[in-house]
Amino acid sequence: MIPFIRSLAVSALLALPVAASAQDAPVLAVISHPVEDYAAWRQIYDDFSDEQQAGGVVMEQVYQDPADPNNVTVLHGFESLEAAEGFLNSDELKSAMEGAGVAAPPNVTVVTRAD
Q1: Which of 30, 32, 33, 63 is in the most buried spot, having the most CB atoms within 10 Å?
Q2: What angle do CA 87, 54, 89 make, to 5 degrees?
Q3: Per-residue model confidence as pLDDT tens for the chain (115 residues)
Q4: How far apart are CA 21 and CA 59, in angstroms?
Q5: Shortest CA distance to 35 belongs to which of 27, 26, 44?
Q6: What integer pLDDT is reported at residue 21 of this predicted model?
Q7: H helices of the chain, where?
Q8: Which of 5, 71, 8 lies closest to 38 in space, CA to CA?
Q9: What is the dihedral of CA 14, 19, 21, 24, to 10 degrees?
Q10: Is 111:56 a contact under the CB 8 Å cutoff?
Q11: How many CA atoms lie within 13 A of 18 on its CB side?
């Protein structure tokens, strides 16, 4: 059984995007917004992963407000400011957010790594 688990772990590691943490991405988008139902939102968010990768997302992490789990903050890492702007302004993302039950306009901050 151990070799099987080790194989799964290696497969999972190989499937990770190039930048596995915010420290590895030169451009970071911090997106905060409330959702109507976290579980429903999360399912659509997870189903949107192919579009994220196609849109240049190289790292992603999701956080919840401990006082209100329906307030989420998402971190997306990008290799360039142009990739971040293209993804964040895409019609596909806007449509997915509407369908996922985002309850208010998102607060989006894009930052670049300081030298």
Answers
A1: 33
A2: 10
A3: 444 333 433 333 334 344 455 567 999 999 999 999 999 999 999 999 999 999 999 999 999 999 999 999 999 999 999 999 999 999 999 999 999 999 999 999 999 999 8
A4: 6
A5: 44
A6: 58
A7: 2-15, 38-47, 49-54, 81-88, 91-99
A8: 71
A9: 140
A10: no
A11: 9
Q: What span, in angstroms and rounded, lies between the C-alpha atoms of 89 and 75? A: 16
Amino acid letter for position 83: A
What does DSSP say about strands 68-78 and 57-65: parallel, antiparallel, or unpaired?
antiparallel
Phi, psi of 96 (to 5 degrees): -65, -40
Q: What is the phi/psi pair of residue 103, to 5°?
A: -90, -5
Residues 89 and 71: their CA atoms lie apart, in Å, by: 21
The total number of residues written for the chain in this structure:
115
